[in-house]
Amino acid sequence: MLIDINSYIGHWPFRPLRGNTLEDLLQRMDEFGVDKSIVANINGIFYKDAQGANEELDKMVKSKTIFQDRFIPFATINPVLPWWEESLNTCHQNGMKGIRIYPIYHEYDILDPRCIELVKAARDLKMPVSIPLRMIDLRQRSWLDVNSVLDLNHIASLVKQVPDAQYMVLDMRVGSGRASTAESLDILKIADILFDTVRASGVPTTGYNGESLKGMMDTYGPEKIAFGTETPFTDYCTPFIRVAVFNEADAGVKEKIYSGNVRRMLRL
Amino acid sequence: MKKRTESTGSEANKMGRRKFLGNSSAAFLGMGVTGISTLKAMENQPVGMHSSDHSGLFQERGFEAMVQKAIQYKKIDAHNHTGNFPDMIESMDRVGIQWAAISDLQGKNTPENFRKSNDVVLKAVKQYPGRFLGKCRINPGYTKEALEEIDRCVDQGMVMLGELYDEYKANDPVYYPIIERCIDHKVPILIHSANILGLWREGYPKVGSSINTSIADHFVDIGKRYPEALIICGHIGGGGDWEYVCRVLRNAPTVYLDTSGSVSDEGMIDMAVEHLGVDRLLFATDVNYETGVGKIMSANLTEKERKKIFFENFNNLLKPAGNHVN
């Protein structure tokens, strides 16, 4: 089985996207053999009330039986909004399996008490919290876009506050975004956390950003790595090539990366 | 000039492919064979993610066919650098790159250091025959030493200049004698670029780039001055606004663009094709092996176009000086 833990539908205000509907995404998944994709609605980053985007996603997923079989919707929750708890509960009741948060886009500190309360509430609902370290490479940002990214120290600081929640780190950076302190590293190593593969190289020589699947595996162990594509932002071929050429992983490890680890976390 | 053969590279690549296939299923092998016949039949049909040839049926582990197909294309990497050479060759083999044009960027770019860098490259080219093509590093600010070094490197078999970094913008007059020497030698010249917001619009951060980093506009200037030169704008995906690059380089019809860089945004290569045409795009990785290959596989290209970008376009640039590979 193959599960993609990092996909989106919806619109990005700074450039046109393609393949950004459930129909398009399903076509890609069929062609490449992806059984299920965790999907969130990009619009939730930009709507003042992210819940509007969750309702759009819920309606779309429920419009076809096959969508319900193949997509695992995650809710976008902004804890700054006074009604975040109501949104979270509605999404949970609607069958959403986890949440995505965007501290930089929604302009709050990851250690804001409201964010910590949100993560605790998600934990109590057994909803994993997925956090993209960034949405774009800052070198190509629009003048209207944000100008900073998260790193693994930020993630570790949140995990420290709510160590018994489940986490997914998306657009995982093992180069510039690495955990730079021993404390961060220790926290992440024992957390119930998955790091996606979208940026990490499967070949021995790594590029400018220094990403390496072997480095991730050596640092965090094979149980913490899960396949992700970041579609429709990243081209849909590269993420598959990365894992396919990762010869240092045997068949058992690849099975964990392809779906085993996320199936465990989501109890699938 | 020497005409190169790729027998060694091809064999090494086959070994790498076997290693890769060793981790895969028999069904995977079958898909590879089918892929070859499909390649011939669909030479002129778009085969990327957005072509109309998708069946709409679920294909169990369908990505493996794509990966196998990607490995099979003959490739020259127009933009790579020195490193741990055995690891580099292993990385090249895993994604099916036969040749990589490499340069060394270690140390401050003084005449003493650029000579050392070029010696490292010359040694690697000899040590690993059939895998690396040499690229000459110079600093255009040292005109006399740079010109002497170009002559030395070309004489010893280097195929081009580059990656020339950000000591000077590509349209700076210090480049004029350098480019004229390249024209004399009939070799290409690759110049680093990064179209970061702060480099083309006042008041924004330059995000790690120097004030002298070249942007697409500078390539338009130098391309107009030297239309006969074989100028390559470095890495569309090397950070910076690739949409900006595509729009601006329309006005530099003689300038080529390499496809390397860590950024592999969906639609990037398609936009480059739309604005610049297939013939001006050169496959490259800049040490990002999977993104290098994946972005070309994802683009909506015909088989013929893919082959051009992966291999033929850059090889054609090597032909005037007789440095092309077979």
From TrEMBL, chain B:
The keyword Metal-binding does not apply. SUPFAM superfamilies: Metallo-dependent hydrolases. InterPro entries: ACMSD, Amidohydro-rel, Metal_Hydrolase, TAT_signal. Keywords: Hydrolase, Lyase, Membrane, Transmembrane, Transmembrane helix. GO terms for cellular component: cytoplasm. Residues 76-311 form the Amidohydrolase-related domain. It comes from the Bacteria. This is Amidohydrolase family protein. It comes from Flagellimonas olearia.
